[in-house]
Each structure stands twice: as structure tokens, then as C-alpha cells.
Amino acid sequence: MSELALRTDALKPLSSYALRNPGKEMRAHVLSSAEYVARRGRGIADTRVAIAAEAIQMTHLATLAHDDLMDESDQRRGLPSVPAMFGAPLAGAGGAAFLGHALALISRCGPQAVLLASEAALDICKGQMLELKALYDYERTVADYMKAIEGKTGAGFRLAAELGAIFGGAQASEREALAAYGEAIGVAHQIIDDVLDLTADPMDTGKPAGVDLRNGNYTLPVIYALEERSELMTVFRNASDTRCAIEAIRETCAIARSVDLATHWLRRARSAVSGLPVAHGLLAIADADEATMEKHYA
Amino acid sequence: MRKGHDMKGLAELHYEAEVAVVGGGPAGAIAALTLARAGHDVLLIDKDHFPRDKACGDVVWHTAVAFLESLGLDHVLESAYRIDGVRLFVDWKACETKRWRLQRRTSQACCLPRRHFDNALLIAAQDAGVRIMRATVTELIWRDASVAGVAIRMDGAGGHVRTPHVIAADGATSRLRRQLTNGKRECAPRCVGMRSYVRTERSLERMFNAYVPIPECLPGYGWLFPVSEHLANVGVGYGVPAGIGSLRTLANYFAWFLASLEKRYQCDVGNIELTDRPRGALLGIGFSAERCELGGVLLAGDAARTCDPLIGEGIDGAMRSGHAAALALHRRIKGKGRGRDVGRAIGRSNPRLEQNSSMSARVAYRLLREHEQEGYASLADRGKRAPVLAGILAMIVADVGGPELCRTPAGALLKPPNLRKWLRDVDELVRDRTRTDFGVVQEMLLRDMCGGLGPIGAVVVAGSHVACGAQVSEEASEGAFAVELLRTVPKWLGRMVPLSGTSAAKTNNQLATMGGEFGLAHACLAASRLGPMYCTLLADAITASGEAVALRARDLFNVQSEARQYLLRASLQSGVALALAARMGALLAGADAEAVEALAWVGENLGIAVQACEDILALMREDPVTGRLPRRILEEGEFTLPVIYALEDDPGLAGRLVGAKDGAEWDALAGVIRQSAGMARAVAVCEEHAARAREKVIQAFGKECELAVVCDLPMECLEPLTAKRGSVGAKARWSEIGGLEEAA
Question: A88 vs B522: CB contact, 8 Å cut-off?
Fold first, then answer.
């Protein structure tokens, strides 16, 4: 990815540190695969694909910096997180600078793209607000959770898929299908992420287990567990004993139910694009998500 | 106007009225009075004999006093007990005291028991020609899907009032509201309160005392409000989480509060003695602009849920909503429109009333709770300071009602009617779009925009737009919206504190990040509506703001920071933002490249002047809109230009700045800096940049260009504080332009 155009050296170390650890670039994959589908595998990719992919990843980097700041997570993909490395005030500033850079990139992709991206940014922000609002809320419902993650993660993936559709010159119906795919895969992705937070080996995820739980962010498995056994509330209230809380959740059907729901959303994602030709790239992304889930949920 | 009775029984009573107002509290009384003054025949129906007691904190907030004065009803408050300020206690320690400066205020808050207040209002209504009837309204009577009257019971007899217009002001447990919503349970947040009167041994200070948090950390507070020298209204009020709602729980909390108060304040107030039975009540919170009119019936007061969810104040909201409902009805009866904007008019009077705003109360009280857990005294520790929290605290006790873009120094520059209306549209745009479930985010955002000089970005957009010969348009307001939102971003991100593992710091950072992202996303969306070119410009400004925030963070508590660094930061933060504003205004007006660049240069310099001016003002006085105190700037380690110069002149100050421990010391330091030569030097720098900008405006657009007036603003705002020259009369030119346009 390209370096930011900065006027001073205040954020240079931070930006090069964050750019060195870009992650799996899932959203960029969704974008380029969607564009491939939209042009039916013919011709060559639109030049805007690369620019928009970079913009989307840049936005993602910004939200990661801000997420780690809000969760006070020390680690991200096995390395110290941006706020742990540079402090909260700089992480906040860095996130803003990344967003600025992302906007500069996406504004080169045409009025439609920039409007879509801005709308998505606001949806992401609103989803994040819903999550913040629900912190430590034992009465958080599955519907509340879904609404929050549809914004927080769904909107970003949806944007990636929709931009791909536009750049590839998709028809309205195809664009709709791809957008639905994006949203579904995003939601599934988030659910899986939330399940992994409780079940996966910290060595694999690169961050300690139960971070969300400790932060009072009651994700899907926790909501299911509380539905089943409301007395678990007392266990969750005692934030210091995360391991005990995770054990308690694993004794319920919460994880299995969450996995079911994730599978359901993956199915929705697949069926959205199943009628489209050359959708194998998109299907492969869904398969990869499913594989990750299966690996950690035995 | 009794019309006789039918043969079946003397019990059937029939009345007629043009308007029936149900409920004789402040909302009903004001609604009835307003309508009667407008020449309508009004019948006010209340179930009680007046004077009657009512569970309430008895606070007549200064905004309510101002409102009564505006209606010529100040005599209602003749026997009220004047109050000088607010004191906020966290964990029983006084943490925030605010004495209102009376020379600046025309209206002073007071305390008056509802027994007297409601009665006096009702008498005023009667004097205005309102007929008052003591009866219980049992239900609405419908004919062909519209209201035809209300059924009443009076002394055991049934009857009805025939009327085409009904205003329901029958309180938080409104029977009419329930009927209008078909008895469906509304998902409104609930808030309860209980109070009694106590006699104190020693005399009470004229202060509103609020104690947070109350037991179990419920979102709410306990209070002691003096109603006379030795008599106080004491109570508790809180939002009800699911599960704890019974009146007994409320009574328990009240008893606990009273006992704790007695124990802790033995030395302050002496023995206290309960003089009255405690009374509980439901508060009308959970306002929704869309639910101020149901089935053709206008709602007012607690029935419309107009209680302020953050502080629980209800009288002001009730009276204003009664007034708004009455005006809307009057317009409707006269056939002047449908008066659909009742809800919005009420919402404007207090931004906290916005939808789901009880959330703000929850957040605020959760913050306060965490605040307490960390220990207030230790907040002076750098790592634990929580500027968002301090902001919310300041906001709770701040001295103003709803902030408005028009009522700020910058807003006042736009005098011509069309520009004024344009700015009001921008204000509306901000309110509409930033409405969130997080009331506290919107309120801080609005206050950030209205604090300091106010929406100078919007004014520059308009100024450069007009300078380039265009009329302000919707596109210009979109641009202004983007710039103003951008300008809030560094303020939010600047509230970030280092990670310290404490929950106050964490919550603080969460809200700061949230607010910053929210501002950015909105700015991007507004710019993208204008087109990619504007996005590119905005993108550059966003990156610059990020850098400004980073530089600020790097320079915190740096006693060796230099003026050069400060100016760089000011130019990245405000210079770039105002250059963007000027560019946007010019480009939207279709100006040529030369004009655009000239204006951008003006914006850049004006931005630095504005930043310097706002930083100077922040050290000179408490901000009237955000309630931010001068010492906070020093406490948070932000050494602005006057501080930097003062440090240059007197290196001995450095030790004191870093080592200060408590509020008094910070206050004293702020005083030292105010008096220092550094302050004068900072003012000179501000003036230099402002003058440069003005010269360029005059050179490029001629003497008559209104942007020159905008360039004078920083110095004009500093004038009363520095007693220096300014350009008197410059403001008048805006109004001349307005006059010309009207003539055309």
C-alpha cells in the first residue's frame, strides 16, 4: 500500500508500522472477486479496483486502530497493537489520518463510489455506536447484536462487493445480489470472529482469548448462553475471571448455536451469488470462512 | 356555558368550549393562557383543587425563568427563593461548583414549591380569560375519526365537554396518551423520583446540590434544593433499569439517601427533620418529536415526555411545549398551516430531548460512577484525567439552554435575512443528521460547534461564496456542514488520554474515538454529495487534522514547546479547515482559480487567527457554551500560545505548571498567565494573522467585501478582554447587503 501524504513527521512512524501489518485483506478479495463476477471474467480489471481496494483496506486499518484503542487490546495479529505501540492519543490521530487517505483514494473512483463509501463509513460508525451503547448490557438481544454487526462489519463488506459490482459494470439485479452477498459474508465473518474470540487458541488468532467478554461486549455466544442460563450473569459480572466464564459458555449450547447462525449466513451469501457465472472466487471466500470456523470448533 | 340537562337525569353535564386543555400543571396552564391571549375560548380541566401539592424538585431553571419573563409572567415567581449556582457532588465530595455570574445573566434560577407555582400560573391563566373546571377527564369522544370532545366525571356525576380541539397535558401517566396509543405499552425509558421537604437546623446556602451517584449506581441523582433559608426539597430520581421498579424500592432509596445526607452533612446543615410525607412520581422522559401529536390531539408537558433526561428538569420543557402546542393549534384554527412542526419546535428548545436521549443519562451516570470508582482526587493524575467526562460534567452544570449556531459570535455576523435563514438551515441539518441514540454525543458535538467563536467554518463558506458573487444555496450548506463536522474531529480526538487500564480512561477514549469517527463519517458523506473534487479537498484536510492531533499529543506537558510548533499545529488544525471552507465556498460559486487560491490563503491565515483567539479566550474565561474552565486547559497539559510565551518570559513557571496538584493551584496558574506579558504577545500574533487575511480580502475583492468583517471577528471577540482597539461598525455592512437583496 502507498504511504500517506503527510505534512509533518508526527504520524510517519505510526503509519509505516500499521501498513506493515495489513492482515488478510479479506475486503480487498471480496472487491476484486465481485468485480471479476460482474464483468463475467471477461476483459481486464478496471483500474479503479486497485485504488478502491487500497482505500477499503486503509479504512479497515483506521477502524482497527480505533477498535484496539476502544478495547484497549494490546495485540493484533501477534504484534503489539497500534495504541499499545504509540499510545491512545496518537492512535486516534492516526486513525483519522488513515481515513483521510482512504477518502482521497476513493474520491478518485468516481462520484458513485465515493458516495457509497461515505454512506458505508457512517453505517460502520453507527454499528460501532450500537455496540458501545450495549456494553455490559445483560439484556442485549440477538436482534440488537445483529443490528450492530450488520453496521460494524456487514456495511464494510457490502461496500466492497458493491464497488466491485459497479466497477465491473454489473446490472442492477446483479449489483443487488453482490451487495447481499457482501453483507451476508460480512455478518458471517463477524459471528465467526466472535466465536473464535472465545474458542480459538490465542496462538492462532494473535490476540488473547475472551477480550470482548472482558470488555463487556456481549457477543452472540454470550447472548445465547445468557438466554439459556441467566444465572451466568454473575459469572460474567466478575470480569477478572475470563477463563471461568468461557468454560461456562462452552458448557451451554451457545457456541453450537452461534456456529449454526454463522453457517446460515454463509449459506445466504452463497445462495445470493449462486445464480451468477464465474462466482467461484466469491464462493471460495465463504468456504475459507467455514474452514476457519471448523478448525477451531471441534 | 352550561347548556342545561336532559330529562334522563340531572347527572348528565354538558359543556362546550373551542379548546379543552386537560391538565392544569405548567404545560396546561401555559397552553391555556397562550390560547386565551390569542382570543380563543379555552376550558382547562383538572381533577384537583388548587393549590395542590405535586412531587417535584421545585426547580425553576433559569431558562424557565427567562421563558416566564418573555410572557410577562415574572410575578408568578415573586415568592420564589433565588438560587446562585449548582454544586455537583460525586461520592459525597463536592467536585464541581458553579456560581452563575449574574451580571451576564438576566434570569436567575429559583426554587418555588409546586403548590404555589402551579397555583400562581393557573391564576394567571384565569386572568387571561381561561375557564377552569375541576373534573376528571375519563376519555376522548370521537366522531368520524376525529375528536369531538372529552367525557368527564365531576363529583360523581358523568358528563362531557364538546370541543373540536384538545390539548392533553395530563402528566407522565397521561390517560389520554394511553388511549391515543390504544393502551399499547410504549417502549419509553422510565424514570422515577421521590421527594419530601426537610427543615434544617442551620441556614442553607443558595445552591442547588446534586449528589451522584445514588446507591447501586443507578443512573440518576439525589438532590437537596433549598426553598427557603431553613427548608429544603430533598429527593432522589433515577432511570429505572428493568427489574427495579417498585415504589418500595424507590422509598428505600429515598430513605437511604436521607439518612446518608444527615450523616455526612451534620456539620453543614445540622440536624434535619422531615416535615412532609415523601411523595413519588413518574418523570415524563423519552421525548419523540414525532409523538407530540396523536390522532389530532396535541400533547404537552410530561404527557409529551418533555422532561430533560439528563438532569430531570421538567418545568421548562413543560411550559415551552405547552406554548408550542398552543401556537400550533392557534395557527391551525386560523387556517394558517397545519402546525406540523410542534415536535420539532419543542425539540429545538432543548437538544437533550431528542429521541432516545435517556441514553445520554445512562452514559453520563455510568461515567460518573466510574469517575467515582477511580477516585476523584486522583483525576489530577495525568493518566487518569478524562476530558470527555469533564466535558459532560461541565455540560450538566453549564449555564445555557440549547446551543444554536445563530447565537454565537460567528453566527451573529450573518445578519442579512437570507444568510441568517441559511445558517438556521445548516443548524437544522446538523441537528437532523447527527441525531443518534447517543444523546450525549450529539450534545457535545453541538456544544463544540457553538463554543469559542462558533461556526466560523460555515461563515467562511458563506462569506467566500457571496464574495464570488453567488447566492447561498443548499450546496453551500452541505459544504458548511462538512467543514463544521470536520472542525469537531480534532476536539474529540484531542480528548484522548493515555491507556492506563482504568475504566474512566477507557470509557473516555471510547467516547472520544466514537465522536471523532462520527464527525469524520458525516463530513465525508456531505462532501461526497457535492462530488469527488470536494472529497479530495476534504481528505487533505482530514489528514492534516490527524497530524494536528498527533502534534498536540506529542506536545502535551512539554514546557519547552515553541511558538513555531504551536503555529504549525494551528495551521494544520484550523488553518487548513478554514482554507477548505473558503475553497469550497468559492468553488461552489464557480469562481476562477485565482480567486479560489486567494480565498484559500485568507482562510489559512484567518484559521490561525481563530485558533489563537479561541485558545486565548479559553484561558480568559469559562466557555459559556461548553462550560470548559480555563484551568482545564492547563490541567490537560495543553500549552497554547499565551502559555508558551509566558514560559519563555518566566522559565520558573514550568515547575509550577508540571507540579500543580489541585484545582485551586491550576486556577491560580491560569490567573498568572492571564496577567502575563505572554498574553499580550499572543493577542498580537492573533491580530497579525487576522490583519493579513483582511488585507488580502480587500486587495482581491475590494473594501466592500464582507469577508473583511469575518476577519475582524477574532480581534472583536478579544476586545472586551484585552481592552484594545477594534473595528467598530464593520459589522453593519452585512445588514446593508441584506437590505439591498430584500429591495431587489
Answer: no
Q: Over chain B, what is the mean pLDDT? A: 83
CB–CB contacts below 8 A, A to B = 183
Asked if residues B523 and B445 have their Cβ atoms less than 8 Å apart, the reply is no
C-alpha span between B330 and B333 (Å, rounded): 5
Q: Which residue of A has its CA nearest to B362?
A: A133
From the list B412, B398, B348, B409, the residue with the least C-alpha distance to B625 is B398
Retrieve residue B393's grid coordinates: 460534567
For B467, half-sphere exposure in the C-beta direction (CA atoms, 13 angstrom radius) is 35
Cell of A155: 456495511
B474-493 and B576-588 helices cross at what angle (nearest 10)? Answer: 170
B19-22 and B42-46 beta bridge pairing: parallel
CA–CA separation, B733 and B709 (whole Å): 8
Which of A7, A96, A107 minimises the CB distance to B493? A96
Cβ-contact B323, B266 below 8 angstroms: no
- Whether the Cβ atoms of residue B599 and residue B582 lie closer than 8 Å to each other: yes
Phi–psi pair at B279, nearest 5 degrees: -125, 135
Q: What is the pLDDT of residue B6?
A: 42
> pLDDT at residue B379 above 60?
no
Residue with cell 451522584: B212
Locus of grid cell 449450547: A253
- Contact status, residue B36 vs residue B21, Cβ threshold 8 Å: no
Query: Contact, B443 vs B360, CB < 8 A?
Result: yes
Contact B498 A72 (CB under 8 A): no
Q: How far is A230 from chain B (nearest CA, A)?
A: 14
Q: Is the pLDDT score of B645 beyond 90?
A: yes
Residue with cell 489559512: B604
Predicted pLDDT of residue B221: 81
Q: Dig out the grid coordinates for B737 from the structure.
A: 447587503
For residue B436, the model assigns a pLDDT of 76
Contact residues on chain B for A104, CB-CB shorter than 8 A: 535-536, 539-540, 543
Nearest residue to B19 (alpha-carbon basis) of B174, B167, B179? B167
- For residue A6, the model assigns a pLDDT of 87
Residue B111 to residue B133: CA distance in whole angstroms: 28
Q: What is the dihedral of CA A3, A9, A11, A13, to 10 degrees?
A: 70
- Cell 445468557 belongs to A226
Across-strand partners of B166? B20
Q: Within 13 Å of residue B527, how many CA atoms lie on the same side as its CB? A: 38
Instruction: Report d(CA A152, CA A64) in Å as an integer.
Output: 12
Give the number of other Cβ atoms within 10 Å of residue B136's Cβ: 16
Contact B417, B533 (CB under 8 A): no
Residue A37 near residue A168, CB atoms below 8 Å: yes
The DSSP 8-state label assigned to residue B306 in this structure reads: -
User: What is the helix (H) or strand (E) element at residue B142, kind and residue range?
Assistant: strand B136-143
CA-only gyration radius of chain B, Å = 28
pLDDT band of B377, cuts 50, 70, 90: very low
Helix axes A172-199, A155-167, angle to 10 degrees: 150
C-alpha cell at A269: 451469501
- Indicate the Cα dihedral angle B630, B634, B635, B638, nearest 10°: 120
Residues 6 or more apart from B276 whose CB is under 8 A from it?
B196, B197
- CA dist B521 and B533 (Å) reads 17
Q: How confident is the model at residue B741 (pLDDT cuts 50, 70, 90)?
A: very low
Q: Three-state DSSP class for B279?
A: strand
Which residue of B242, B359, B517 is in closest CB contact with A125? B517
How far is the C-alpha of B603 from the C-alpha of B270, rounded, in Å? 60
- Rounded CA-CA distance B357/B283 in Å is 14
